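This section describes the prediction task in plain terms. A model, or a person checking by hand, is given the sequence of a single protein chain and must write out its three-dimensional structure as a string of tokens. No templates, partner chains or ligands are provided. The sample shown here is typical of the held-out split.
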Amino acid sequence: MRLPDGRTLGYAEYGPETGYPLMFLHGYPQCRYEGSIIEDILHQRGIRMIAPERPGFGLSTEQPNRRIMDWPADVQALARHLSLSRFALMGGSGGGPYTLACAHTIPHEMLSAVGILAGGGNWKAGAHHMPWIYRISALAAKYWPAGLRGTLSIVVWMLRIGLPSRRGIQWLDGYLQKNQDKYSKTIEERRMEILRALFEPFKQGSGPAAYEAKLLSQDWGIEFRDVTYSNLHIWHAGKDWNSPLPMTEYYVKQLTENPSFKVYEDDTHWTIHRHLDEMLSELIPENTMTKA
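The expected answer:
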């Protein structure tokens, strides 16, 4: 769609067209294709997922000097474009801070519920909680963005060569085989979805990912005590190495509305998705579906 300022906003839809609308904010660095991985669950639960892409990722035009707090305006513009008067909102991983920004800014009557799944933590809690590789990336994003862009470009290039190779496909298929009973799609279909979701974010180069690394590791521009939206659900993993729990607890304690905060103690950033059906039932209960 074309945004009011002339930029293009890319998005994808998954699940039944008549399902309850759920706006899903992708992780980092991801794109509109991330939602395709859970399409089976969406059809089972009757949920219509709309997955927009942040500026510079996939099909979305870059937005110079953008801030996290600029994103809610794009979400509202997309909701108007799709004639959504009320919808649920959910963000995963790097989409977590953007989801919180939406809960802060979007009129409450438009939101039926807001959920944050393994969301990125706030760096004000202390950079020492983060793995060393992320601390280096944050410093590079701030002081040497060209170096970070170059590094990301090399990593993507190596993945483009390695994953489609015979050895890469064998490894990926072996991973997918472990959970095949949960999906109606074939392993080959799921493999293609993952590869597509992996490379599409870098369609416009590595610059947008390098810039977002800076946004996520600095002040988000959100006054947590001013987030007054009450139907807020936050799910996190106790063994999340990618987004350490103390960094999420830091801002949760400052939220005045006491959100529903659940920690899955034995899960990691990469296994917490196995509880997604439970999370969606909390975010969009059957009585909400009926009202839709």
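For orientation: The radius of gyration is 18 Å.
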